[in-house]
Amino acid sequence: MIARDIEPALRELLKGFPIVTVTGPRQSGKTTLAQTVFAGKPYVSLEDPDLRQMALDDPRGFLDRFPDGGVLDEVQRAPQLMSYLQSRVDADGRMGLFLLTGSQQFGLLSGITQSLAGRTAFVELLPFSVAELSAAGRLPSALDALLFAGAYPPIHDRRLKPSAWLAAYVTAYVERDVRQFVKVQDLESFQRFVRLCAGRCGQILNLSSLAADCGITHNTAKAWISVLEASYVLFLLRPHHANFNKRLVKSPKLYFYDSGLLCWLLGIRQVDQLAVHPLRGGIFESFAIAELLKAGLNRGERPTLHFWRDSNGNEVDVIADVGSRMLPIEIKSGQTLNRDFFVGLERWRALAGELAATPALIYGGSGRLVHRGIDVHGWDDVGRVLP
């Protein structure tokens, strides 16, 4: 089993909260992590229809089965249980009683916000990071091999063929989860929508264009984007507010949490197709930003990431807020350092002045170095970019 970097932060939170809730995409390793941290305590999955019905019919009796707490998996399937959990932990008074997991933010967070506010801490578990795979000796030696495989645990733990597993994943989880939240009468339209989103990875989100290309309404496109966000399939990177006296773009950019899933949706079925694929740069950019998110989340904090782009086309791929300063990060998929890689960072540093932290460049090479006052990180060192 590959160790998870988030485990120390999770154990620390259990000392100060009666409940800790672990969210993240399906098959990201939440159950394995919860059972590792709560080894010896009882475990139950509310995906099981019999157990779910028991929890709904007799919530007090259900919770009485866990006098010393335990793991409740996929709790968004029984939202009525949250109020009874509140009474239970309030009466007990002990910390670290329950670990909850959930794969859909809509059902999970709405129930917790209403019933368990102040009683639970949250951690988000994404698929394996580069650092985790490297520590376990499972990191592919070539960048394209990692981009193609992605980082979902079953692919690396079981050494499965990525395209076969991802095809089943989309059918079994992504499409099913969406149908639980919105009425998808035409599944073919939804499948086309997800693939169109993949084709726009790294681009400014234009819902009207996306809806028109898919043959659906603007409101439907907006709803589907929201559900794909809630299911941890994709995320939106918002523009930074710093304008330096220039007009800014106000729409977000669209990215995917996992490069392997992104490749599958783009129709990439062999790793050697990546080298010449027209969207390789966008795939690498999505991978790098997801790794920045993982680095923060695995410390128990969601990093504050934005992009910056003004009306003249000046752009920085990521601006990370670090204390009172802003860390500009540029992402380039090329394996050879090029002078053009640094132009945007140097321009932004001049505009930001004392507000700018030492800029960083993530590129398709390997290792780490400093060039022209800019920290340069290879793809295998991306976990060390954020302080």
A few lines on this structure:
Helices cover 41% and strands 17% of the residues. It has 387 residues and is α/β, with parallel strands linked by helices.
Structure, explained:
The protein is an alpha/beta fold and 387 residues long. The chain folds into two domains: 7-124, P-loop containing nucleotide triphosphate hydrolases (Rossmann fold, 3-Layer(aba) Sandwich), CATH 3.40.50.300; 130-384, no CATH class. The chain has 16 helices and 13 strands. The strands form three sheets. A six-stranded mixed β-sheet has the order 8-9-10-11-13-12, with helices on both faces. Helix 12 (207-214) crosses helix 13. The protein is globular and about 65 Å long.
Features:
about 375 residues, alpha/beta, Rossmann fold, 2 domains, six-stranded mixed beta sheet, 16 helices, globular
Q: Please report the total strand number as a whole number.
A: 13
Content-based structural category: alpha/beta
Describe the main β-sheet briefly: 6 strands, mixed
Distance between the termini: 28 Å
Q: What Rg is obtained from the alpha carbons, in whole angstroms?
A: 22 Å
Name the average pLDDT.
Answer: 92
The number of domains is 2
Strand content: 15-25%
User: How many helical elements?
Assistant: 16
Helix content: 40-55%
| Topology as a string of helices (H) and strands (E) | HEHEHHEHEHEHHHHHHHEEHHEEEHEEE
Placed side by side, the strands forming the largest sheet appear as 8-9-10-11-13-12
Low-confidence runs: none
* Shape call: globular
